[in-house]
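question for whoever is on the cluster today: can someone run the full assembly for these? three chains, 1240 residues total. i dont have access anymore since they changed the login thing
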Amino acid sequence: MFDKVEAFYRPASVREALRLLHSGKGQARVVAGGTDVVVQGGDSIRFLIDITRAGLSYIRPRGTDLVIGATTTMAELEASPQIQALAGGLLCRAARTCGSLPIRNLATLGGNMANGSAAADTAAPLLVLDAAVVMADAKGRRKVPLAEYLVNVRTLRYAKFLLVEVVIPEPPQGKGCRWSFQKLGRTAVDISLVNVAAGLQLDSRGRVKWARISLGAVAPTPMRAPGAEKRMTGRILDQALLAEIGAEVAREVSPISDARASAEYRREICSVLTRRALDECSAHAGCSL
Amino acid sequence: MKTMELHLTVNGESLDWTIAPGELLLDVLRRQGYVGVKRGCEEGECGACAVLVDGKPINSCLMFAAQAEGRHILTIEGVAVGGKLDPVQEAFLDHGAVQCGFCTPGMVISAKALLDRCPDPSEADVREALAGHLCRCTGYLKPVEAVLAAAAKRKHKARRAKPVAEVAP
Amino acid sequence: MSGNRLVVGRNLRKVDGFKLVTGGAAFTDDVQLPGMLYGKIMPSPHAHARIRRIDTSKAKALAGVHAVLTYKDVPRVPHTTAGQAWPEPSPYDTYLLDSKVRFVGDRVAAVAAETRALAERALALIDVDYEILPAVLDMEQAMAPGVAVIHDEPDSTKIYDREHNIAGYILREIGNVEQGFAESDYVVEREFRTHRQQHCPIEPHITIAWLDADGRLVIRTSTQVPYHTRRQVAMILQIPVSRVHVIKPRIGGGFGGKQEMLLEDITGALALATRRPVKIEFTREEEFYMARTRHPQILRMKMGVKRDGAVMASQLTVLATTGAYGSHSTTVQGNTGSKVLPLYRAPNMRFECHVVYTNNPVAGAFRGYGCPQGFFAQETLVDEIACQLGMDPLEFHRKNVIRLGDTDHLSAQLGEGKEGLPRLMRSCGLPQCMERGARAIGWAQKRKSLPNGHTHLRRGVGMACTMQGSGIAGVDWASAFLKMNEDGSFYLQVGASDVGGGADTVLAQIAAETLGVTLDKITITSGDTDITPFDVGAYASSTTIISGGAVKKAAGKVRAQVMEMASKILNEPVDKLDCANNEVFTTCVCRQAVSMTDIAMRAMYKEKFQIMDGASHFNTDSPPPFCATFAEVEVDTETGQVRVVHLATAVDPGTAINPMQAEGQVEGAVAQGLGYALTEELLLDAAGRPVNPNFLDYKMFSAEDMPKLTTILVETDEPLGPYGAKSISEVPINGPAPAIANAIFHAVGVRIRKLPIRPEDVLRALAAKRAANLEEEALLTP
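^ ran it for u. tokens below:
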């Protein structure tokens, strides 16, 4: 409950938002969609800073990058032609699984990152697309690789910063280039027990030119699987390789047991979903196994 | 206790309310008499508190009332116009889609939003639209049937409203 | 079903539908009472502790706090919270507030303050010094020697063996099971485990209490049992029953969780202490662990059959826990025996059950009332036996299930806390339920072969037959009152509690049919202890048959008065008259008629006579509704996920008074049964604290999870029910778990004997099966 809140601000700019955040002296909380902030509550919160009017809802190209404002909602991502076209609609598919429709109308991409949950559904696709985030403080803006951001977001290191933008570099293009997102929950609308995003490109002989694999909900933060990625490069993509990669990924993750699933089960599912993600990529890449 | 002013439109009515800064939209709406907006979980999971904000269904338990400044809210109380039930409401009654009725306002709100943007939904579309509404009474079947029936009726009415000359031979 | 019925049997709109679909003020919380305070219960953080010292001074001193109550401030009256007819067959082991706490969430104190925030702050200011006691969290340890005694207080009564934490014990036998097993060709015994499911009504428990201008305590509350609540609150607060007024408005779901006096006593106490209206509304989290749950059970089931499949003996031994208090402890578990074993015509049956206390959230009534657990065990075991015999499970059922004309003698031994009554099957549509359900799922074809290619997906079909009861024989009773209005309409007053299933509509239809009027001519008021006559409340699938029986009787008496008046007007003897469509008419060729309106006006303003009457009703039997459930599943052998593709439920409810509402009851019960089978479980940690008391972590089925549902009503004509009706609200919840478990076996050859069946349970079973097969192969290899 928020009965100790003294003031609710709706700054019209990032600068104004930062000024309010700074003057709040640790008792201010930034909110956009509220799907995490409201549920988490906070007896110590005195000031709320709603940034949905600070000009951070946009999806647009910047050079060869695609930039997404932090307060862009999941529903807006799903509906955007640019996001649908990006990497075969990878981010779209993930955004679509971020809760029910009423949630997706509120939940923001920035919020999904800033909440710092290992199960955040958009994190794995963004990692696999080598995304970065832009943070702003009184001194200016800083661009940080998403992987680094996710490791630090729950610490105090970014307490003075406002996440303003997600930057996605142009994904690799070309023939044989495909992406996949897989998620397993207990029911249709659920937090991920495990999620996997993958992308790969095959050459004309079915050999892996490059592969990217990232997983969520199976480590303290969403992660890439560099060992598995390396192992795939240059190899013919066949069932044997899929099984090998599935096993490799299971070694790279460190899941926990909780109310939703046990660590052993999650580890098993990592292998299965990784295989399925890579299988889906290869099927669409015009290579049958 | 600190207060602030809120100006918004609810069911077509322009309103000025005094609220506490940390109040949630659900609490303010109920306090102001919109008791059709239900409190079921206060964490955005059950959908009983759903209202339309600028045409989009959201869980009012997750929105701060202050965030509704200047926006258009539709609650269940505003769905029937001039005492005349919306086709979705009629269909819910005709198809036995209402049992205890606690989840019904939220479902009607989401169904209405669905049909407004997608007049010819598939069953999958309807189930997706209702997936954020937990119902413990119906097993969801009759509500889904009701929404599909309402869509069919709206389409039929729209067709019949056309002048005879436009009807294909 | 039979004859020319005009109202009964029709899919008429719910009489309360308009206000529900427009969000009208109808539920407990939809009123604003000036000066209302917010009440809150302080929950115990410990599973088992004594309150050594409790200091409420700081809480009381907080501005805006109007009352803080501890055990020192309230009367100590042992009672049960179970909403049951007096004398309740549950231990009297609960106190309004106590100096001992027995589960995480148990009442420590209660406050009333001007805002919700203040109430929460007041709780935080209550200073408690606990003497922490060893907690008994595992029901398998609860009876062990030397284990802490949970109910060591001397003033609690009706506890079977308090020293060993046994709330209740049941042993019943028909014939001689040992002999029956000896005569069997094949005997199987298996153990099954079931878990804590929570009702999850979308409207949590909520009560508002206030003193009216006459100083009477008014309680507006979300309850299934307004009359039991009135009696219990009066007893606990030590005020006369006549000074308590309980009002049941629209209820946002109950499912048994509200067959309980849960918040009314404490809210009433706060209202008395503050002389202000007080509201206590459970948060969703509180609803999960401070309300009620289903009883977890460990069941050992043993069955002996002849080579040809005839059941010779069945034995069920149950260990259940009722949590910290004994609400519904013996009666739920009694049902696990009495409603389950007699499904089969075994000459020998034995049921034994220990119900123990543990320092866990309290279990209580939940749709099915002990049957989901028992049928999970029995129907899974029966499927195993049939498969072992090489018999089609459908054939096994046909051969062995109870038939029309049979008598169930086990029920005679297992009443509600006392000797019961034998049940005679005067109506039984189970054979047709089996045939039609089997056809709907495609049983014959799919049992032989399913499209299982070389993918990781495997399909299977499984079935279960179940039954329930309709009201508690010799215990459940109801009454109804009707009076006629000027416009030929009738005002129907029933104590019955419509908790959402449409009881008001069904009862109004029965009245309308009997009186020969259309449904719109019945205005119904229900569940108000000042205005409506007594009814035990909405439980045991009693409303249609018992409350409906009272309505039919009362309407019959009023009809007689109407006929008398019409006879005067038409100058014809009563035996030459009939009524329908809002008029009374002569049955001869030269049809003369008089409208109900004219009859009313004549009675009121000429004869100066109010046409009105009432009646009470109970049954001495409990005719079971029957149900056959068929499931088709698809198992993902890589993830263990079980997708239910199609669930067909064929039910014999007697007559369906409103078929559309009846179907809705089936579909809702099935959805709860699906959650019970696959996804729902309230988890507790090693200290007895709830792990997942919210909708994010406790998963119910949503609209996107539901399988294709087929609902088939097989109507029969039950002599004991109004217009042939029995009941339908509980029985369909019993079938999904065993049908799904059996379908999983058909699909992938593993038997899961615990609930819920989670994907990792399936994966583990598959892995174990592979290992066993490999071992077998290794043994066979020369």
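summary bc i know u wont read the tokens: The mean pLDDT of chain C is 96. DSSP finds 19 helices and 28 strands in chain C.
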